[in-house]
Amino acid sequence: MENLLQVRSVNKTYAGGRRALHDINLNIHGGKIIGLLGTNGSGKSTLMKIAAGLIQPSTGGVEVNGKPVGLETKAIVSFMPDRPVTEPWMKVSDAVAYFKDFYEDFNVEKARNMLEFMNLKANDRISSLSKGMNERLQLTLALSREAQLYMLDEPIGGVDPVARGKILDAIVEFYNEDSSIIISTHLVRDIERIFDEVIFIRNGEVVMHDEVENIRLKHGKSVDEMFKEVYAE
Ligand SMILES: Nc1ncnc2c1ncn2[C@@H]1O[C@H](COP(=O)(O)OP(=O)(O)OP(=O)(O)O)[C@@H](O)[C@H]1O
């Protein structure tokens, strides 16, 4: 498979001098579900926002499908940020209409199927949704685009353990196998079953990038056990 996402020597220092990313290099291929794992403040959101074209790196560059991040790459990248992208006054149906207007690749049929799977009703008002139900909606909107690269920032942080299983099932069920999905989380144990690869990021640096199968075979450990070892303080 071709390189879908290429991150070259990316550094990011925010105004105020806080260094969030340090010399990040990554190659991500198509057809994978990848975990971007790290503790709070390790740089996961910053890396996703740079790849989504929302913020600029201080130095270095990112390419999606061989093109530098810009308008062309934004058309094939679907990003679910860690805060809702919808307005509280909207109903679920308004949010779907809004996405359909905004994104040419938005698949309304897929959105309807996912909403049903997620137990969300078109008439539900967004302000009345619980945090977990709102996350299900944001995930539905992000995954209903026919994108090539999906980046989901903490998609299951607010949902209870039972619902987590359902959401992971939705990700796998509605995943188009030509695309790749990068999921940031620190809830490793709950979610590792769906990962093909994992990237461990600590203090803005990539400390490990490997296939889950290799971690299990080489180290005889689950990803969660490896995570706890790498991040032990
Ligand atoms: N807009 C900003 N201005 C200044 N510093 C920031 C900004 N956004 C993030 N940071 C800092 O950059 C570092 C990395 O933050 P980032 O949000 O990328 O981490 P994260 O791994 O996504 O964390 P979490 O799991 O808590 O969401 C942190 O030290 C954070 O305080």
UniProtKB/TrEMBL annotation:
SUPFAM superfamilies xref list: P-loop containing nucleoside triphosphate hydrolases
Keywords recorded for this protein, A-Z: ATP-binding, Nucleotide-binding, Transport
GO molecular function: ATP binding; ATP hydrolysis activity
Pfam families (UniProt xref): ABC_tran
Keyword ATP-binding: yes
Lineage: superkingdom: Bacteria
Record carries keyword Cytoplasm: no
Residue ranges of every copy of the ABC transporter domain listed in the record: 5-228
PANTHER family, alphabetized: ABC TRANSPORTER ATP-BINDING PROTEIN ALBC-RELATED
Name of the protein in its database record: ABC transporter related protein
Organism the protein comes from: Paenibacillus vortex V453
